[in-house]
Amino acid sequence: MINTIILPEPTLRRLPWYLAYIDILKAQKVEHVSSTQISRALNVDASQIAKDLSFLSLKGKTRIGYEVDALASTLSDFLGFHTPHKAYVFGAGSLGKALMQDSGLANYGLNIVAGFDVDAAKVGSMVGDVPIHHIDSLEEVMEADPATIGILTVPADKAQDTADIAIGEGIKAIWNFTPYRVKVAEGIVMSNTSIYAHLALIYNRLNAER
Amino acid sequence: MINTIILPEPTLRRLPWYLAYIDILKAQKVEHVSSTQISRALNVDASQIAKDLSFLSLKGKTRIGYEVDALASTLSDFLGFHTPHKAYVFGAGSLGKALMQDSGLANYGLNIVAGFDVDAAKVGSMVGDVPIHHIDSLEEVMEADPATIGILTVPADKAQDTADIAIGEGIKAIWNFTPYRVKVAEGIVMSNTSIYAHLALIYNRLNAER
Predict the structure, then answer these.
(1) Which of B184, B203, B209 would best serve as a mutation to test chain A binding (most A beta carbons within 10 A)?
(2) What is the pLDDT of residue B57?
């Protein structure tokens, strides 16, 4: 069961927390868990948890709570982690290569099938199992092995152009790891993982704590 | 000039966007930029930009705007990207190794000096320039080459314990890449980079757009 309703962003941020916790309980052979128990472990309000989980049409039983096994697999299904989603990585620099080699992403449904770069030294090589193509071959690769997600790890000054090219060839979602704020047309999914913003936050709070 | 005031999180999210854009202008030898121009490029309200930049005690001149060179270096200084911050990576799995090999992070002031794991096959090895130690050696390593930031890339079921150990040995900030919601005492800086939450968001929006 894949969800097709638009979930609120805060819910989508919390559901993976619940899943991570419930997976731990599952490994410990725990059979049932209540929202109060999840609440205590994760510091999230119990009524919020019940509300978030109600999107999955899953209800806990009074006094017993949720079945751990069912909750784990329903949550993972619901979040799309069991469905392979094909992705390309644009920019085979250090971060791009790192993501192509991060086998953990496959466990969350992300299947990186190709990388793109403009550097002749990289084009034609493999990063792990992932072949690196020239960006000019995008149309061809898109025909042979189409992807919906474009992961952006190019230098900041190439971010907008690369996103435009990717979207022009049919990419439907941009996962932006560059510090540049890429603009996309309506209907294109955009998600920013702002590594540098997190660093800025950590440094600021560290200095303030001194 | 490092800032020691606590900046609002949204400001800390936006400042790196401005910096990325201004660095591009700098490379293009542009000399001045107005907040209106930044606003158009990044889809951020011009008055918001002026407000964010006022934290840096930088003011644009009427009609001319900000000096690009000065703005770039002041912003980067202010965000702490010019100051090396020592960090350890906990968990030398695929993501942990990826971060240790991401040379780009050093450009943003992050200096990863050691990795930790419990896997005997990894302990004693190097990932790029970074030595991997057993977690039991943390106290020793902390004395020899102390760090303030702990980057958490262990399996979710080890996230809380590892954070507790790291903090116990003097780590002041946890940058959590695991899907587990780690709890820390007050005074410890906590930042979550929720890769899996971003994937969940992308998948949800893609399915809804269909």
Answers:
(1) B203
(2) 80
Q: Which helix (H) or strand (E) holds B11?
A: helix B9-27
CB contact under 8 A, B80 and A24: no
H/E stretch holding A192 reads strand A189-192
Quote the pLDDT of residue B194: 85
The ipTM assigned to this model is 0.92
Residue segments in chain A with a per-residue pLDDT below the cut of 50: 1
**Taking a C-beta distance cutoff of 8 angstroms, is the pair B79, A198 a contact?**
no
List, in order, residues 6 or more apart from B187 with CB less than 8 Å away: A209
Number of helices (H), then strands (E), belonging to chain B: the values are 8, 9
Average pLDDT, chain B: 92
Please, what is the average pLDDT of chain A?
Answer: 92
Contact A193, B9 (CB under 8 A): no
Grade residue B34 by pLDDT with cuts at 50, 70 and 90: very high
Between positions 161 and 200 of A, the ones with CB within 8 A of B are 172-173, 175, 178-181, 183, 187, 189, 191, 193-200
N-to-C CA span, chain B: 49
Q: Please tell me whether residue A112 adopts helix, strand or coil conformation.
A: strand
Cβ within 8 Å of B, A 126-165: 148-149, 156-157
Q: Is the predicted pLDDT of residue B60 greater than 90, yes or no?
A: no
Contact indicator for B99, A98 with CB cutoff of 8 Å = yes
B109 to chain A: closest CA residue:
A199
Q: Would the pLDDT of B3 be above 80? A: no
Q: List, in sequence order, the alpha helices (H) in chain A.
A: 9-27, 35-42, 46-54, 68-78, 94-101, 138-144, 159-168, 195-209
Spell out which residues of chain B touch residue A187, defining contact as CB-CB under 8 Å.
209
Please report the pLDDT score of residue A194 as a whole number. Answer: 85
Model confidence, pTM: 0.90
For B65, phi then psi, to 5°, come to 90, -155
